[in-house]
Amino acid sequence: xxxxxxxxxxxxxxxxxxxxxxxxxxxxxxxxxxxxxxxxxxxxxxxxxxxxxxxxxxxxxxxxxxxxxxxxxxxxxxxxxxxxxxxxxxxxxxxxxxxxxxxxxxxxxxxxxxxxxxxxxxxxxxxxxxxxxxxxxxxxxxxxxxxxxxxxxxxxxxxxxxxxxxxxxxxxxxxxxxxxxxxxxxxxxxxxxxxxxxxxxxxxxxxxxxxxxxxxxxxxxxxxxxxxxxxxxxxxxxxxxxxxxxxxxxxxxxxxxxxxxxxxxxxxxxxxxxxxxxxxxxxxxxxxxxxxxxxxxxxxxxxxxxxxxxxxxxxxxxxxxxxxxxxxxxxxxxxxxxxxxxxxxxxxxxxxxxxxxxxxxxxxxxxxxxxxxxxxxxxxxxxxxxxxxxxxxxxxxxx
Amino acid sequence: xxxxxxxxxxxxxxxxxxxxxxxxxxxxxxxxxxxxxxxxxxxxxxxxxxxxxxxxxxxxxxxxxxxxxxxxxxxxxxxxxxxxxxxxxxxxxxxxxxxxxxxxxxxxxxxxxxxxxxxxxxxxxxxxxxxxxxxxxxxxxxxxxxxxxxxxxxxxxxxxxxxxxxxxxxxxxxxxxxxxxxxxxxxxxxxxxxxxxxxxxxxxxxxxxxxxxxxxxxxxxxxxx
Lengths: 399, 225
Hints:
A: 6-stranded mixed barrel
């Protein structure tokens, strides 16, 4: 092994230009692999943080009650279901500490929500009111990162509204508004924060108030309308939801129930990434195999001499496989270093800048790229190496 | 002297059908240990084919081939390879050195193959052999920087590295000038005398053959003499 390694190394150093080009070719493949990993990984992270990252992974919501029957028989007369008042979960608040203590649970947000109207002077807009517990404003949606004016912190008498709603109502930070719920309860609030999620819907129609304010508005001294739960691993939601249901007796729903299409899109994106990286790997394998095949052909007389001197076929195979491995290792290391250097200008830790590529330097799969390149180069060298070992020494020396 | 190599009724035919070409036709030969023999014969007579078979690089079509009492016809490829490394040395007409290696690295190649690494013992013997070949100042030279005569002396040193019982030399002086050819033959004769190594040298040159104790002539695929 040691001696075969020496010969392999000597063959590589003997043709420096050829080896250099080959290593550069492999490094280019590894560079593409790493760049694609960082880009696809960063893109997935961006999509997740901008979509699933802002929603509850598991949510507890009361099942809507069946409409009240006003007149039995034929015709059946029922009361129209209310679309404005959410059903109450009277015991949900008691389970919040229990849910929080579950392994894999990152945050829990007890909420009271419903519909209402916001009035500023003569202007009125319909809004969806979300009552959040102070201190947990960013537990589910990253409100803190969306606030463009003021603060996301909610207290008694404060309201956080979207930028579009503020524009529609000509509202400025610090101004007062009147918020009335569908229960007919009205309260005066001060705009303490304006957010911009970038999506028209929430920016125009959602207003956040403190849980206490929401209790007053919806006349709910007890209970909650919804409990939102965020997990450390969003893909664990399907397993976690039934666990929470079993523990609390409340119906917990995984985000995947309504997000099957999104899940499919994420899976398709991951598969695309694997495919692109595989192409980079195949390029490396073909490059190494063709270069080594050329090398074995060029070195046929030497292989013949080695065989005549008593080198076994296994030894010859080892020399060329080690040559491939060395090329793979050098190309892998160089490509990984170049890839890392190229990704350095991008912000680390998924702090993506608007307008720039969503690249995450941490997701370059450097070790995997080097390991796969090494493995690919070894596999690529087996065929040329076996061909070299089969060289007839008499014929080769006669060349 | 004892029989080192015994071949009987050796037949080697190349091709088949219309292209069938018989080269060796029932050749019988015994080489005694310590012999210095010349193998003469016109081109195409089968000298090189015989050397290749004796060197276990090629299998005969039929016949018997024994060396050191071992049946070389029935031996597997890996067994013949290991045997070759240990007991047979080669000197080819065109030196056949590894071009990317130094003179010393070429000489110790057979020993490194055997040991799996370049040992200090092998290096010492390699340097001793090169010194005996008059190449003490060329030990670490890349072989590409050596003259034809120097290269052939390196090839002789390499052939002797593992102290083989038999050295097969195929036209070892065929590509050298008269002076270099004389030097190489003197070295071979000296080693044969000092170490008792058996040499079988294929040559067209009567003068070279005259330096050998025994002359064998291959005619129509058979040995005379």
